[in-house]
Structure prediction request, 313 residues.
Amino acid sequence: MKNQPLGGNEQPRFSGSGTFMRLPSSENISELDVAFLGIPMDIGTSWRSGTRFGPKQIRAESNMLRPYNMWTKAAPFDSLNCGDIGDIPINTFDLKDSVDRIGSFYDQLLLEEVIPMAMGGDHTLTLPILRSIKKKFGPVALLHIDAHADVNDHMFGEKIAHGTPFRRAYEEGLIKPDLVYQIGLRGTGYTAEDFNEARNWGFNVVQAEELWHKSLEPLADQIKNKIADHPVYITFDIDSLDPAYAPGTGTPEICGLTTPQAVGFIRGLKGLNIIGCDLVEVSPPYDQSGNTALTAANILYELLCVLPGVKER
Ligand code: MN
Ligand code: MN
Prediction:
């Protein structure tokens, strides 16, 4: 019997453990196929902060999630042993040290055959994760769903911040540029180069305007054809969604993706060789209704449902 989320008929959903979906908290990573973890960090943010509270709030809202996907028929807990391994103890006084701590943690974690599902935290955290992933898998394909390209060379002179991880990842050879998809980019910038420079590196940039009023399932099909069975990492910045759906985030941009577009896109990714995911930039202090954290919990669940090995019933 694999780990199961605690059901609402066993313990009221407003109580019980504070783990993701009330899964068992796991110390023994070697028993897991999927490890949920928190990276409670906001010292890489440039505008509003608060993402240090993201993992706790995403876990709280995830208490309402039930195990079976009523549309896709995915039953992830039938085939994958899932657990919540807690939070990485970052150093909240030192961003660079925190990046190193995340890297060391992932180096250890990835000694096991486990798929990490991280709850952020600001987007800086994806850089050390990709560094660790490269050691195991080589340069990976990357699906980066975000309002922002996060390819600044620096922010206020700092090379490491939440707006720089994908330039660093490109420079360090952590990703395969022609297998990078940046989806949902929009808003105001400084020059056209803000998005075009990465296009010249080979990145596939899909601006939000190209997706307005459309299903993202054809895009998911295109991506599957291109990436095929190459290992792929998925990083989902909650600000890719329109602030009407996800207001609780640090750098909101209007005219974003809808929640049905995002969920349809993720469902369309079934079949990819996904080796890890993160969901970042949920800032509970700006999330008055709790909808942002609730949406984040559901997005993580939908990602879980398309991991390799998940069967339908
Ligand atoms: Mn981002
Ligand atoms: Mn963003």
User: Anything to note?
Assistant: The chain has nine helices and eight strands. Residues 95-109 form the longest helix (15 residues). Residues 169 and 175 are 6 Å apart (CA to CA). The longest strand covers residues 175-185.
